[in-house]
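Today's session is about reading a structure prediction critically. Students often jump straight to the picture, but the first step is always the sequence itself: look for stretches that repeat, for charged clusters, for runs of hydrophobic residues. Only then move on to the predicted structure, which in these notes is written as discrete structure tokens rather than atom positions. Here is the chain we will use throughout the hour.
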Amino acid sequence: MKKFLYLFFIILIISLLLSACIQDNKVINENSNLNISRIIDINFNDKVAVVTSKVTADSFEFLITNVSPDEIEIPSMFMNIVKEKEDKLLVAISTINSVNTGDVLLTIKTNNFNIEKIDYFSRNTLTKQYNNFDPYNWKWGGLLGDFNLSGKVDLTDFSSFVYYYGMNSCNEDVPDEFSRFDIGPALNIVNKGNWKYVYDYKLEDQQVNIIDFSIFTANYGYSILESPSGTIVLNNNTDITSISTPAYNDILTVLKSLPDEIQNINDIFFNHKEYIESLMHAITNNNFQNFILNLINIPENLEESLINIIEDLGVFSQKLSINDYLDENIKWEINDFDWNGDGIIDNNTELHIAATVTYCGQEPQKGSFGLYTDILLKLDDIDNIEFICIDKNTPGDAIFDWEFLTKKMNYEDLSDYSLTFDENDYLIVDEGLISMMAFVFNNIYVRGNAFFLYDLNNTSATITSILQSDSPEASLDELFLTLANDYTITASEMENNIFGEMLKPRDDFFETRVASIQNSIFSQKDIVKMVLEDSIIDYLPQEHEITSGPLETFSIWQIYISNILNLFISDINVPVHIFGPIMIYPAVFFENPEDFEDLSIYLPDITLEGTIDSKEIEKIIIDFPDPYFNGLMSGIENPLIISTIDFNQHMQIPQIINCEMEGITRIRPDEFGNPTPELALRFDVNISNPESVQKVEVYKNDEYITDLYYERDNYYFNEEIFEVITLNSYEDTNYTIKVYNYNNEIVDSKVLYLGKLYSENSLEITSPYNFRTYTSGENIMLQWNNNLILPYEGAEINIAKIDETTHMVDWENRMRVADDYNDETPYFSIDDLSYTIPSSFFESSGMYLIELVIYNWSENTSFEYHTIIEIQ
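Below is the predicted structure for this chain, in token form.
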């Protein structure tokens, strides 16, 4: 949390300045002696048993009865854990190397023991170099096994690990710090330098077992501590031309250019203050007419200046998009620059901002305010700030006080803090901070560049005149009557009288701009990946390095409640739903920009039927020259015929026709076959007039839960997944479905009740275990334990085929095997604890999911247990 707050304050300071301007590795869990004999050999000699391996692995776990710890000998090649567990002995061994067939695992000095269970694991079956991971779905990384954050994995860490070994958060209460020790399965993401052979990214499986021990052993003895690297000092006097390394030269150039760029932005927005205030007022008040009018009348010099700034930020992003790790850090003496643009560097005095500030209980005050003394130190006492510009007339360039921020992060009392700027006020700039800045600049560049693709402020003279008139609605009516006097409005008439040049490129660089936007979108994921990899390397906190320290890295992207990753398009290949059946395909636009350079070629001809003078239009026929827009869109009828009835129907308020919810406690296998619990809240809603629906949201009381997404026709759906440990906070409460129109108004809502949810141990399939293999034609004996406490109203058994290519379950063709509520389906009872599934249900070889389900329809709850088998 502390690192996030550091970042927040750095972003806040910069924002103040800008605002002034604007695999196949299953754990084998077998209980029969037959299966144990496949894993080990036991050779008896007098009263000594020698246990040897029959498999290749690196870690083994034994559950043994009738034996004491002093009767167990373990070869020195293994790290080992020996714990007594319910009158049994749990013995875990792991080696950094590999165990081969015939290698000795244990020597047991008694003949009366019994090995009840063996688990084994080979970390080499897990793909160690995982290059296709998704950086937008990240968990904590670092030197796994370094529990005390010493920079190495040693005996102290092993002592802590032993305590947690054998714990399972799914079926027992565990300490709060348990997840720190759940380090397996794991991957190697960084894969370079000291990190080349280190497991540094954990996938977690809610238990500390032989898999975690294998990962711990692999990292045991590793140290990522390095002697301090060289440091490049950056201040206003740094001669960048003396830096020969291109990457460092680019980074230093950007950092040294930032004060000048901020001054440019400051001057531009200050010089166009009235225009910008008018534009923002139109946006804030949803005044479409004034917004369009402002857009049309944007001053030419402002437009050119904005484009230049956007291009500068694009260049900054490219220069900061590093492809490899830096050998030296950069010491950024951030106060030693001319931030206020007065031509004098005063690094001992705080920067001042011209603004109107309203302190709590006081009238607004307009004047010059110190960045720290009047703003940052008094944030809790400020109701509102309206920035004007950076104050050039008040000396001072210092914007960063390390001691102040450190105290703030530690929640220390700052009421008597004495503000001092000195040589300790600097930042260490590394790959993480550089890439975060690249992310922000790249985001602004993409959005800004897209805004200036078309000549949006060059509408027809007719429309400009109408918008500037005192009665624009009457003028628009007159234009409509003029254009429709022959009951047709042609595409050329719309272009000449309405759109003008708006749908044409702003300049001759359209295709170049589109390609640049596409490249920037593609690069964004690599930028984020670099930040997250840096968080692994810098998991230990470093002084003055704000992107270092152990933290769930994804939270550094959160500013207040918003996640800025959601503001950015990360995959242009994903179709975007507009409304109803209409979809847009961004990839088509980027792959064929020449087809969309002049959008006016897609304007339709419109034919009207009815009486024009009285405006009693009975039918509107819209004939598109290409309803697919060269592959950019789908779902548009052509010709699109709208009768008066249809038109009124389109204008009707959306209403919820039907809505259902289901709270599902589900046990599903993870990629290793381990039963994994989850809570799913499913919502199915039918809404009339979906073309008038902007969004559909779900709230639990006043707490936002999720959005529902359009599927087809008038159907909206979503299934949101939560951790099962939070189950109690979602049951016995009301959920509200809210439907919004395009004015962001709630036009309909419905309340649904969710009753008592089933606990995760309500049912348990005991056979078949996950990934068990059967021969074609063999019946499947499904067996389960019944631990139900809550009542149920219906039960069923289903099977579904798993696609061999996508590994997705074919839910649409799921087959009902048996239930206890439908007379036309074979009967079974939950109390029977078993049911034989006929082989006829498995029509072909492959993977199948078997599902055991119970329902309490009165409470809108259910329980599902899934297991996966293979038919050969």
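Discussion point for the tutorial: The two ends are 51 Å apart (CA to CA).
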